[in-house]
Amino acid sequence: LPQLNIVSNVTGKLITQEIATAQYWCRHLQQPVRFAVGMETLDQLGYEIFVEIGPKPTLLAMGRQCLPQKEGIWLTSLHPKHSDWQQMLLSLAKLYVSGVNVDWSSFDRDYARRRVGLPTYPFQRQRYWVDGATNKHKIQEQSQTSIVNLLNQGNIEQLTHLLEKGNNFSPEQRTLLPDLLSVLVQQHQQELKAASIKNWFYYLEWQAKPRHLPTILKPTQTPKPGIWLILADQQGVGQRLAKLLEKLGHRCLLVFAGNTYNIEENATWVIDPSRPDHFEILLQKTLSTVNFPLQGVVHLWSLEATPTENLTIPALGQAQILNCGSVLHLVQTLVKHNWLVSPQLWLVTKGAVAVEPSDKSIAVAQSSVWGLGKVIAWEHPQLWGGMIDLAPDGLLDDAATRLLEEIGNSEGEDHLAFRGGQRYMARLKQSRVPKSQVQLRTDSSYLITGGLGALGLKIARWMVEQGAKHLILTSRHAVSIEEQETLSEIEKTGVKILVAQADVSLQEDMVKLFEEIKATMPPLRGIIHAAGVLNDGILQSQNWERFTQTLAPKVQGTWNLHTLTQKLPLDFFILFSSAASLLGSPGQGNYAAANAFMDALAQYRQRLGLAGLSINWGQWAETGMSTNLNSHHQARLTAQGFSPIASEQGLQVLESLLGSNLAQIGVLPVNWSLFQQKLPLLSDLMSEISLPEIVKQTAKRHEFLEKLEKISISDRQDVLINHIQEQVSKVLGLKSSQLKLEQGFADMGLDSLMAIELRNRLENSLGISLPTTLVFEYPTIKNMTEYIATKILNWQPIVTEYLPKPEDKLAVILSEIEQLTEAETQSAIAKEMAGLESLLKGNSS
Q: What are the CA-CA distances from residue 160 to residues 82, 190, 194, 430, 724 (Å)?
């Protein structure tokens, strides 16, 4: 039965258990709504207060007409003429003064408040049906035996009853059955969990790959002469590279990083990496006045970052500006100028990635730019050249020669490194399921940063189940009522929890915390660093302040934990990184950069003989920062083949990784055959996908291009319109018929990330290169079709006028009528009748 009294719209009476039957809901669809009878029932039951839950007070007016003698209290939840908070608080106040008991402490408790944006396009009527995959899944479930189902459910009582019923057990044997079945259920469910995650593990492998082209380039083998912008290092690699390029007929502009700017002729050019306007001045005053095209940009400022052995928190902050800050401002300026021929951007580091086990150290201060670079490749493929990591002990002349070879032609590689004269390329490879080697100890303490978040609390519960008795949980905010309830439940099991309101990125906070741990808790044996901040947005909408908010807990926070634990015998030092730093993720440039630092620091700690593991997690389903992603972004991930990680599966992964000797591991539940981005990093994995699937996808793209070439020019335009309309509908998750050709993309609900996805879809299907600003410069399907047809494909201008269809006009009119309140409807009818009456009088006269 329902827990609350519900009056049925089918009968107008109190509902019973029939609400749980399919027959009731079929009647609900077919039969008239007995609203008036339902109101009379509420009156007879003595209800005096009526609250309408909805965007307009339509039903309140109808309810009053049904009960004309009823005074009562009639309250609106939302009203189109009032702000939402104003209307809801007004109705709540009326309830309170009417004698309703309101829990004001819960109403005004300390919880996060945020607006949730709804789609800007109108909700559409669509028909939904169960797809074939779901039916197939149900058939598989039905094919399982009753014993397997009971094992999956862990129903020991029913299993015991089932076995007793079919066998003649002795009393002694029956006594043992529950314990034996309990062990069997536990092993069965552990095997199910292990099977569900066995294909999720990936690692980064650096493979030696010599060049196919000659090592010394000749002028005839290089691109046409142009300008090369070199953000040069003080060590001299940039200057040597410039000389080599100039010998080949290019012109080079050397720019150094400083606290001011100087870009006058015959002077050393200097700009401030933290000033976006300096990059704008640089391009305006130097590149816009010369005749040669901007051929490429080489960023070498990362080489100026402080070596890891000498790093401090202030030096680390300065390094991030020199690395990520300058790259962010550089990319924004290059995209803003929208070059006719996009220059290729190359990011250069030295010893920032772990290529060989023999690498003695990792330049962690330079590593963040590798995460940012992977996002540039997603958002601005037309700009992307690649990333090159020079050998830490290499000669300057050799480094410059290596750079010249790769920027001339990298042979399709964009993750390159050099060690001991060898050329390496990065590849993502699948790994076996690791085996856990650590048992949590009752006489030790374990620290979880971000410990009061949903994910942190789940990890805390799990650690207690694994045997931990002493936990330290950190958070930037004070403990809420709900969090305290959870902590109290855990503490009832005999666990001691130290909760510290501390910011992991602040050195003074962490020093104080570690002093308290040393004084009041057992020895610290393990750390799980799960704190983080999301501040997503495409690079063109980002600024350095938003970057620093995301970098702080991951970069400064991880460094603080590292320096404070170097002398502690930790069993594990686990960093919660992200797939964003492994594969890149559009809209997450700051997050990818932050997590790339964690990946590098884990590698560095391993080389010091310390515990260190960075886990590049995919999207967690119920907990973690990924739950803040809106439905469109989640749909995008799903379309790319990524499945969410259930909490139970994530904790199973964590258990298998605890204490492993790995430095970095990706945990990615993904179907690579659906992954649309062509990344050299994934070429080995993609080659393992079944050939028919690759042929099928390639043939589908070629089929559309061939179709365009075969049909007449007039028909091409219509086919192209339909194709673009279809791609927009897939990005938005709507039907093509719902999209109007002259409706703005913003009005449809297309955001900046979707704009990138749409452009990538069109590039893949049409085999053409499109500008990053495509959606913003051509903001309707009609505009975009005309641009692609005339400017990219060089077709004749489209002259067809796109007039709304009669059925489209009717749909708009009906939609507008449905939005009217009863009073507005009556008023409109009265006006129409008055106009008709006036017209009749005029005709009769």
A: 62, 20, 25, 41, 60
- Assigned token pair, 569: 């015998």
Q: Which helix (H) or strand (E) holds 297?
A: strand 294-299
What is the C-alpha to C-alpha distance for residues 771 and 677, in angstroms, rounded to an integer? 17
722 near 784, Cβ under 8 Å? no
> Cα–Cα distance between 131 and 129 in angstroms, integer?
6
Residue 582, H or E segment: helix 579-583
**Of 377, 367, 772, 346, nearest in space to 585 by CA:** 377
The torsion angles phi and psi of 685, rounded to 5 degrees, stand at -65, -45
Q: Residues near 721 by Cβ (< 8 Å), separated by ≥ 6?
A: 741, 781, 782, 785
Neighbour count for residue 206 (Cβ, 10 Å): 19
Percent helix, percent strand, percent coil in the chain, to nearest 5: 50, 15, 35
Residue in this structure with the two tokens 């599966």, named with its chain if needed? 649
Q: How many residues would you count in the chain?
A: 845
- The alpha carbon dihedral of 352, 353, 359, 360 has a sign of positive
The maximal CA–CA distance of the chain, rounded, in angstroms, is 108
Please state, as a whole number, how many other Cβ atoms lie within 10 Å of the Cβ of residue 645. Answer: 25
The CA distance from 741 to 743, in Å, is 6
Q: Which of 20-29, 137-146, 329-338, 350-359 is predicted with the least confidence, judged by mean pLDDT? A: 137-146
CA distances from 54 to 71, 95, 395, 817, 818 (A): 22, 17, 71, 17, 14
Give how far Cα 444 sits from Cα of 468, 521, 524, 526, 701, Å. Answer: 8, 8, 6, 9, 58
Q: pLDDT at residue 141 above 90? A: no
Instruction: Please choose, from the candidates 671, 693, 692, 691, the residue with its C-alpha nearest in 3D space to the C-alpha of residue 682.
Output: 671
Encoding tokens for residue 680?
């050299």
Residue 78's DSSP bridge partners are none
Q: Give tens-digit pLDDT for 174-213.
A: 888 888 888 888 888 777 777 778 889 999 999 999 987 6
* Torsions phi, psi for 270 (to 5 deg): -135, 135
Residue 205: name the closest of 432, 430, 413, 433 by CA.
430
Q: How many helices (H) and strands (E) does the chain have?
A: 33, 18
Q: What is the pLDDT of residues 633-644, one digit of tens each?
A: 666 777 778 889
Distance from chain centroid for Cα 316: 26
Count of CA atoms in the C-beta half-sphere (13 A) of 426: 21
CB within 8 Å of 155: residues ≥ 6 apart: none
What is the C-alpha separation between 440 and 448, in angstroms, rounded?
14
Specify burial of residue 371 (Cβ count, 10 A radius: 0-12, 13-18, 19+): buried
> Given the structure tokens 């996009």, which residue do they identify?
342
